[in-house]
Amino acid sequence: MGNSYRSQPAGQKLAWFLRAWFSLAKWHVTIKLRGYEAWRDDVVSPAKDLVVSNDTPVDPNAVCHVVHKAADNHLFILNCLRRCVVAREILRKEGVLAVLHFGVRSRMGQESVHCWLTVNDQIIGDSEEHVEKYQELDLSRRKGIDWLAFLL
Q1: Is residue 116 assigned to a domain?
Q2: What does the pLDDT read at residue 2?
Q3: What residue numbers bound the domain in which 53 lies?
Q4: Disulfide engineering: 3 pairs with which of 7, 24, 61, 90, CB 3.0-4.6 Å?
Q5: Least confident of 4-8, 61-65, 101-105
Q6: Residues 105-124: pLDDT tens digits?
């Protein structure tokens, strides 16, 4: 899936890190302060998966790695939703189509939601073992979107 993280130029990784850090802050504040209805379409819309082509190959896992570093070194505690939305934005700008998925699981009467990205049907920035614990929500149907609102 492209070049490894280490082979990405240092300047490119720094640019991704800065873009990720500020985008993570923007999304954190947006999600915290605005109602779900105000930002839902920006997150779940299939139109957000459209990209412009880029001739320079980018490793999607390298982008996810940088986004996780930015999130781990942030002022806020940032969950998978914020990390995935930002990684998808950066990948889209790099010409890589990343699809956002949501899943739910019930454990001891507690429901939890998780999200992850795929590129060419390959999970990126997460482990397959972790993702398999969740039943994917069908966001093409209204019921899936309503579940998401309830769980976030």
Answers
A1: yes
A2: 47
A3: 10-151
A4: 7
A5: 4-8
A6: 988 888 888 999 999 999 99
Q: Residue 71: inside a domain, yes or no?
A: yes
Give domain status of residue 74, yes or no.
Answer: yes
pLDDT at res. 147:
65
| CA geometry: angle 118, 123, 128, nearest 5 deg | 150
Total domains, the chain? 1
Closest CA to 56 of 105, 8, 19: 8
Angstrom distance (rounded) from CA 5 to CA 66: 9
At 119, phi and psi to the nearest 5?
-130, 125
Q: What whole-number percentage of the chain has pLDDT above 90?
A: 53
Please indicate, yes or no, if residue 3 is contained in any of the structural domains: no
